[in-house]
Structures are given as C-alpha cells and as structure tokens.
Design brief:
The chain is mostly beta strands. Helix content is 6%, strand content 41%. The two termini are 15 Å apart. Bound molecules: the ligand Nc1nc2c(c(=O)[nH]1)N[C@H]1C(S)=C(S)[C@@H](COP(=O)(O)O)O[C@H]1N2 and molybdenum atom.
Length: 355
C-alpha cells in the first residue's frame, strides 16, 4: 500500500474546517476528517441558522411545560443530578451535499462535509418528561432554542418538534457533554438535544424550553423548512431519518497515486439501521467490488469501510462508492432533486490519477 499525495482543496480553513459562511457560522469538515471514528471537538462541523446566543450558565433554565401534569424548571445543576447516558452519534445536516443537486436549490452550499460523529452524555429526554408527568394527550414534544432571528415568517426562534415516541426513545438525550467535555457554545452548550438517526435539524441546540403538545407543531422550521418539496411545489414529506450514504476519506479528491495497491477507505451511515454493505466501483465503473466493514460498530454511528484497490492501468480513474443498510435502502446513482435541497445521497464519485 502506497502513500497518496492529495491536491489541496480550495476554500478558507480554520481548525481544519472549511468555512462555508462566516455569519451565521457554518463550517464543514474535509474528507480526511472522516478517518477519525470520533470527530475532535475543534473539527466538528457547525451549522447555525442564527448567531450563537450568549448564555449565562448560572441563570440558565430549561422550562418543561405544555401537556404535562407538573410544569418544571431545571437548572444545569438539576440536569447534572439526573441519570446520565452516553451515546455515540453521527449527525449529518439535511442540506449536506446540496451542491450535488442541479439546478442548485437555495441554502448553504455544502459539499459533503456537513457530517460528524461525537460522543454525547446527558439526560435522556424521557427522564425529564417523566419528572414533569407527560399527559396521555401529548403527541409531540417541542424543543425551542435560545437563538432567534429574522425569517420570511418574521422574528423566529429555532424550534422543532419530535413525535412522542422518538422523544421517549432512551437514546434521545438532553446532552450536557460532547466527547467528555462540557458542550461548547458553538455546539449547543450548555444543553442541546441529540436525536440519533435523524438529520441534524432535529438536534436543537441551546434548548431553553420543552413543551408537550396535543396538536402538531406548525412553526417555520417545522413546516416551511426541513420538508421535501417537489418540483410542483407540493410538500411531500417532513425531513426525518438520515438516508443511507457512503463517503470516501482516502484517497483525497483529485489525488495522484503510484501504480500498485492503494488502500481506499471511507465511512458509511444510515438513519434506518446498520450499514450492511459498501461497494466500490473500479475498473472503468462497471464492476462493483464489496469493501470490508471494519472498526467500531455503534448503533447510531458511522462505520469504517476499506478496500485494497489494484489499478491495472496508468491514467485517470473514477471510483464510486455505494452503501446499503439493513432496511434494504441503497443509494441512488443520481440524488433525488427537491426544491430546498435536502437528503442528497447520490453515489459519490472520486477522481484519482494513477502514474
Ligand atoms: N437552536 C438551534 N439548534 C440547531 C440549529 C440552529 O440553527 N439553532 N441548527 C440545526 C441544524 S440544521 C443542524 S445540521 C445541527 C448541527 O449541529 P452542530 O452545529 O453541532 O454540528 O444543529 C441543529 N440545531
Ligand atoms: Mo442541518
């Protein structure tokens, strides 16, 4: 296996991240960052709709109300005293790979780096809801962030609801720590929701209020954004589970490699269950070869895959990778276009020059 020389990617960098937008802050990871099972805090992608709120931890409260028997207010010390759980979670932004869609929909022009994996520790949301006594008529749980800003619907807080069953899943957390350290402001500190398996918009940062609802939430970020809108303008479905996807981490895009065996690797994930297969198209594209699934296997985290590829001619090669999950979902060759550019999971191509 030879070393690979990568071509530097364009775009300004900070902490190994690529800046997508300065204000509000949006940064994406580089393909090499997929090598680490757990993304270091400084390298995690950041997606924010509004400015990061400045919060006083001593005064911080999470209000829990709505369709509950006993509305409560929890300080950070109260949350820390409740039972804690740790879960490894891969989070992908629903707009990741929007730039693979044509015509380009509005929204942040993500390449493929709006995804990361972190270890989250916190209180299961179910524990908090049990404290407040969830009423029988509660069908959704709404989480509101402390951030707000101007939208086509006027001054709006970032707020999202979850179906009660997903909110009560033991792995849905009100997280206080990421990678073993208190959650930093950019990542939703001091308290954020973590919703495993769902695209990132569900994992509300800077949670200030939780409300049990007896009717569906119809806020801006629930019904006007994070919905699949068809070409004719019809809203087909809300955006929920992450679609199955495989990505290359090595070689780097546009790399030149020496003739001989090349270790090709990457990551694959799905919100609909375990990844059961990753295939790589080599030799001009018609043959799909199965890659090995390796490394840690965690229910809600991406899986490493690798393959030793032996090119048989010098020149330009186009590799493609494709994942299948345990529910039988396979990536499409071409991503499904939708007006707001969500859920793009078309098969990734990688150009590699062999000399
Ligand atoms: N309060 C609040 N929570 C939020 C958002 C936001 O703008 N405000 N963005 C969401 C989106 S779209 C994504 S993809 C994830 C990104 O989480 P990260 O910045 O920790 O990577 O946060 C979600 N939670
Ligand atoms: Mo997102």
């Amino acid at each position: 296996v030879r070393f690979v020389t990568g071509r530097a990617r364009s775009g300004s960098r900070s902490n190994g991240l690529v800046l997508v937008r300065e204000a509000p802050r949006n940064t994406e990871i580089r393909p090499e960052a997929l090598d680490a099972f757990i993304t270091p805090v400084a390298s995690r992608f950041v997606r924010t709709n509004f400015a990061i709120p400045k919060l006083d931890h001593r005064r911080y409260r999470v209000e829990v109300g709505g369709a509950v028997e006993r509305p409560i207010e929890l300080r950070l010390v109260d949350l820390r005293r409740l039972p804690q759980r740790t879960v490894v979670v891969t989070t992908e932004c629903a707009g990741n790979q929007r730039t693979s869609l044509s015509p380009l929909p509005p929204g942040e022009p993500w390449l493929s780096g709006a995804v990361s994996t972190s270890t989250f520790t916190g209180v299961p949301l179910a524990v908090v809801l049990e404290r407040a006594g969830l009423r029988k008529d509660a069908i959704e749980i709404l989480a509101e962030g402390a951030d707000s800003g101007n939208t086509p619907a006027g001054e709006t807080r970032f707020a999202r609801s979850l179906p009660a069953a997903k909110a009560l899943d033991t792995d849905t957390l009100l997280a206080l720590e990421m990678n073993g350290r208190p959650l930093a402001p950019a990542h939703g500190g001091p308290v954020r929701l973590v919703v495993p398996g769902w695209y990132g918009m569900a994992s509300v940062k800077w949670v200030s209020r939780i409300s049990a609802l007896s009717a569906p939430f119809a806020g801006y970020f629930q019904t006007e954004r994070y919905v699949f809108v068809e070409e004719n303008g019809r809203v087909a479905q809300p955006v929920r589970e992450m679609r199955v996807k495989a990505m290359f981490s090595s070689p780097a895009p546009g790399a030149t490699v020496e003739m001989g065996p090349v270790l090709v690797s990457g990551r694959a994930w799905s919100g609909a269950g375990r990844v059961v297969k990753v295939e790589v198209a080599v030799g001009g594209g018609s043959t799909w070869v199965e890659a090995r699934l390796t490394g840690p296997e965690e229910k809600h985290a991406w899986r490493r895959w690798e393959l030793t590829w032996v090119p048989v001619w010098r020149g330009r090669h186009v590799l493609r990778c494709r994942a299948t999950d345990e529910s039988g979902n396979v990536q499409p060759d071409v991503p499904r276009w939708n007006a707001l550019g969500y859920g793009a999971n078309g098969v990734q191509s990688l150009v590699v020059d062999v000399r």
